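Weekly modeling sync, notes
Attendees: S.R. (lead), two postdocs, one rotation student

Agenda item 3: backlog of single-chain predictions. S.R. asked that every request posted to the team notebook include the full sequence so nobody has to chase files. The rotation student volunteered to paste the first one in as an example of the format we agreed on. Action items at the bottom.

Example entry:
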Amino acid sequence: MASALPAATSPLAMNIETDIAIIGAGIVGAACACELARGGWRVVLVDRAAPAEGTSGACDGYVSVSTKIPGLSMQLALASREIYPEWAARLGIDAAFHPIGGLLIVEDEANWPKVEEHVRRLGEAGVSARLLDRTDMLKEEPALSPHLAGAVLCDGEAHVAAYRMNLALVADAMEHGAECLWNAPLVEADVAGGEIRSVRTPVGSIRAGQYVIATGVWSEAVGKLLGVTLPVAPRRGDLIVTGRSKLLTPRMLVSARYLTAKAEPEIAEKSDDPLIRLGYGFVMEPTVTGQHIIGSTRIFAGFDRRADTATAAMMMREAARRVPGVAGLEVLRCFAGLRPYVPDKKPLIGRSDAVTNMIVATGHEGDGVTLAPITARIVAALARGDDAPFDLTPLHPDRFNHRPSPHRSP
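Predicted structure, as returned to the notebook:
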């Protein structure tokens, strides 16, 4: 099991030459490093702090297909879902893939037509999803409140302990020869002739044949150093971890309203409802340690990650309305993470045409855990000069170049 921070392998490096430099060691960057190092590339993995100290260490571990809209987003999620069991076997850690299934909760009858349509589209895409009325819902999950209208049973949902997976991927990359630099933010870049010649950090300079930008919420600043527009903004999510207890539910639970909170942030900006303004969507996740992760919010508050006890209290009340047993759980801690949000709600994945030796893999917002495996496979294919396994045109990393970078006020 890899649960301790892997030590940097080049702590006093002055100048490094390598095949590929990966900037950002969250779960996406770590997955890319693992895939490329296993493919025989000389890899240097660089992070402004350390693995799992950013978004991947402050999130739930929901590997979700049912919350995706059929199309490219769902195709990527399905592909990742197929890769995760391979990762679990290969890494051999207790943070491995746990296919526990999930329930999409329908709070009131008014949402039922939209949910029925979503289930129909999931079925057309080959995703297992079954509508449950109130009676069938309570048979499947007696911990739920009888005041709920019903649910959708989604057998393909899964859980990953993201921070453990993040650390395990870094350790595996290092076992296959990757070098690592921690506490090494990019401070300068030499870009000329449409290529990155080198990048500099406080602990050394790196010259690589190719560069992978997997810098999450810091991507906009990194893009400016490289002369490209990567309009990624931090979108805060508040979470609670409960004490250990008998699990109230063996499945992931998520509100159907979560889909709206995720996809339509403009509604939150205009609403007078405090829950809507917080972008609140009920999520509850059982863990292998006998704890529950409860959330969550989706708000723009800059880089503020301070715990908000008032929001945590609200989330516990709202969770207890849906799962009455939550009222008896102990709150161990509350915290916030920052999702890397892109204005058109699509990640930035692909090789840049503006900077031709740069591959971008960022802006996954809340889907970094779900999409890390397929993102790594895509990055490895592009690094080899192969075609990506999907048409990535809608995700092209240059699509915001020459446009004003959109900013949101906290």
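Discussion: group reviewed the output briefly. Residues 72-91 form the longest helix (20 residues).
Action items: rotation student to repeat for the remaining queue; S.R. to check formatting next week.
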